[in-house]
Fold these 3 entries.
Entry 1:
Amino acid sequence: MMRVVAATRRRVGLGTWSESATWPCYRNTLDRSCLQGNFPGVSASGGKASASGQRLFGHSRLAPTPLGRRTTALQNQGDQLSLSLGHQLTVSPQHGQILPFSSNGGTEPGTSQESDHLETHTETVMMAALEKKLGSTFSRKSTLPSPSPLLIVISGPSGVGKDAVINRLREVHGDMHFVVTATTRPRRQGEVDGEDYIFMDKEDFEDLIERNELLEHALVYGDYKGIPKQQVRKALGKGTDVVLRLDVQGAATIRRLIPESLSIFLVAENERALVRRLLGRKTEPLDRALVRVETARQETKRIAEFDYVVENPSGKLEDTVRKISSIIEAEKLRMQQKAIRI
Ligand SMILES: Nc1ncnc2c1ncn2[C@@H]1O[C@H](COP(=O)(O)OP(=O)(O)OP(=O)(O)O)[C@@H](O)[C@H]1O
């Protein structure tokens, strides 16, 4: 037999009834005849439900009143209200609400006390009545289908802020895997091997290519960059979303190999801002910066190939990260999700 314990008087219908005239039988004590006439499907002696009980409970929640005396009276009576359904209610004024208890006094296996905390006394009783009528219990399992992990590609021209955005995303989404790209380019000041990039020499990188251990790789401005396959496979296998940072060419390769991936193109507010950002980084001489700017012009023409375009305006990195988070959140709610295979 299931017992239901009404825990706080403040949350429980009993503890918040109004003393208004709409509750004629409610006085200083809660007597059984009153309950019998007004609990839907509940009585102290197996009586029938009344529709007025539901209305009054609703009313009482809108007009809460302290109920020390009443609940004490109830407690003194040691009331255990038998549901006409064969369930039991134990009303306790000490805590905030009603919890279902198994016959051995513990919570039912697989139930969520957290969601029960939101239930009022009336709701619990009415749900028990509905469950009885339907002949089955209301599931506490999530109604949402479990989402497939996403493969998110963040791309855009050099200097647009891919690293800056990803570094901030990493702080916000600790539950995602951010692929560490392998590269042969020299380490910049402040970069940490294995965290920002996996820095390796050309021979080691070419060995990875030969062993087909890279999901994608390219020669960028004279240096190799590539995505170690194993890292991605492992994270997706655990159901973890994976974020890749790729140049525009690399993003195109991933789209071709994995059409189910989600691609986001970052842009600065305008070309001038992009160039300022590139120069401000002071990581390369003017001739190399010129190549990057020319390439950026070509790459920006490929915006339409991407699923989303997100502006990363100067000084508004947080907004950019928020927009990307919204995209990810929406994508996870898609009905038609395809599993990603590598
Ligand atoms: N929203 C922003 N506002 C101002 N500065 C920014 C913003 N986003 C990035 N930056 C700065 O712009 C410069 C370039 O950013 P970042 O290195 O992240 O670009 P990137 O796209 O990763 O470039 P590359 O592809 O060449 O590695 C950095 O100095 C970075 O701090």
Entry 2:
Amino acid sequence: MAWIQLRIHTHRDHADMLGDLLMDQGSVSITYEDGQDEPIFEPKLGETPLWQDTILIALFDAETDLAPTIEFLETMPFLGKGFTHKIEQVEDKDWVREWMDSFHPIQFGQRLWICPSWREIPDPAAVNVILDPGLAFGTGTHPTTALCLEWLDSLDLAGQEVIDFGCGSGILAIAAIKLGAKKVTGVDIDYQAIDASTANAERNDVADKLALYLPENQPENLHADVLVANILAGPLKELAPLIAEKVKTGGKLALSGLLQEQAQEVSDFYSQWFDMDPACHKEDWSRLSGIRK
Ligand SMILES: C[S@@+](CC[C@H](N)C(=O)[O-])C[C@H]1O[C@@H](n2cnc3c(N)ncnc32)[C@H](O)[C@@H]1O
């Protein structure tokens, strides 16, 4: 089945209402895109913020005559006569296949691979984490995850206790276990991340070494040899005393989720507790690392 889509530039204050109107007009799905370059990095739980300049895309069955819908929208005061819009044909595809085709095994550092379950493992003798994209963040394709995976691969984790703060899909926690960690604790504010990490750990046969907590349930006196936190600059600064307290003297720390321009400030802040290394960068993102004083 083929489709047509109607693209309309709108303001975030009108986007939801416009979406509802278009669903009433027979649209089968509504999607929102950034109309400018205004990144939204990490919305709070339960929030779905939109961009000031939002592009709304309404999908319709290809047989739909959109003329009455356009006429109707022209009566809306926030759009008006001759409002800017575009109608596009969308060729039908096997979207699941298309999506699956875009994920491939990726190598991080010397030993570690992240492999989608539907792909052949390129190097069965390597350290392989089987992981499919899901609702929680963390497939390995984002530079911040990649920087943390490369850092974990560079360590000798045999027998070490590790904390993964902001565990998302569990990708870093599971990689740490497969790289030799004795025990890993994953913490996340999002219960979907806890569920995803549990399922991914089970699939990788490492669930017995992974303990997962929402922050309010994490054990007191949780201490580790290695702590990795891929969150964002703001929370990393807020959480700094708590993070520092969890790392044993001489223990190792990696922080990511930082934009390059934020790295120096966060590094300076953490140097109260850690001897910090120079930052590593990938695309616009940075990773900091250090040793607990
Ligand atoms: C960028 S994702 C990282 C996921 C995964 N560790 C990775 O490297 O791909 C950040 C995760 O941190 C979680 N998070 C954000 N703020 C947090 C906080 N204050 N405490 C614990 N987790 C937090 C989010 O829910 C999200 O799952």
Entry 3:
Amino acid sequence: MSFFKRLKESVSRTTSSVTEKFKNGLSKTSASLAGAMSSVFSRNKIDEELYEELEDILISADVGVDTTMEIVDRLRVEVKERKLKDPEELKPLLSEILVDMLKGEGDEAGMNQNPDGLTVILFVGVNGVGKTTTIGKLAHHYKEEGKKVMLAAGDTFRAGAIEQLEIWGDRVGVDVIRHQEGSDPAAVIYDGIQAARSRGADILLCDTAGRLQNKVNLMEELKKVHRVIGREVADAPHESLLVLDATTGQNALQQAKIFKEATNITGIVLTKMDGTAKGGIALAIRRELNVPVKWIGLGEKMDDLQPFNAEQFVHALFAKEVEKETGGA
Ligand SMILES: Nc1nc2c(ncn2[C@@H]2O[C@H](COP(=O)(O)OP(=O)(O)OP(=O)(O)O)[C@@H](O)[C@H]2O)c(=O)[nH]1
């Protein structure tokens, strides 16, 4: 069976609204990639020039130089092994390689949760990347699953951050634990844990301030937060998610590298994918950081935050080609 057929089968296992969300959210990236690639695939033979054109396209989609080289090298090997001659045959092969690379080495992008007690999830990232919005959307997601969710307003540094989280708390209908602006984030999160326990919450989502200007401060603050959480709840935080704005491209990658040096990151949330034509950044982040992308922001609505899925992602990029080959069946 061709890879496009397999891809279609695999995405049809989730509800069609999820597939539509991925397709709509990634339509800018898909349009720009598909447009650029059509000239590659309509060449009359697979040669060095074709590979070079493909490299340029991937790099300009923010896939990053190292990741692009890895993709094209794998393509060359497979073309030789499978004895492919027609550039058209590269489309499904390229999609297959992208799915494989986005999946990583078998580590599923699922969220680690406490099987018997409170799950604590920590959010880190610089201001303006969509951290508060992501916490709000995730609170909505878990509430829809029937979980009791609470929020801890640990970004005590940025003016307005606490109020913004409270607005989300009201909107979603979950309690927010807060202190005064400027207070100790670890103390807010400590109180959050106590309140979550006494109110029987399943999940506590903790905001933090993302001060990148001073790495030592950032490190110390996050270390203290981790220490407090770990002392109160065994094996917590269960996830430490770094929120990155996809529209900032290679800058997001740089931020991620600094955060990764400062603290233990278990997953990435890539926001605003709907606002960029350079969604290739997801690949660069996955490969260069070796941290799974766990959630993806595909729009501003509450249910536009989706669990990341490599097949859905690649399917959305090549949706037109998949439909063409599988005949819309
Ligand atoms: N289109 C789109 N917009 C998003 C997405 N995620 C967040 N936003 C928007 O990005 C803007 C910034 O989001 P915030 O949540 O305020 O940013 P923030 O990271 O919390 O800022 P700090 O509180 O300073 O950390 C808001 O207007 C959000 O609606 C997304 O996936 N798609």
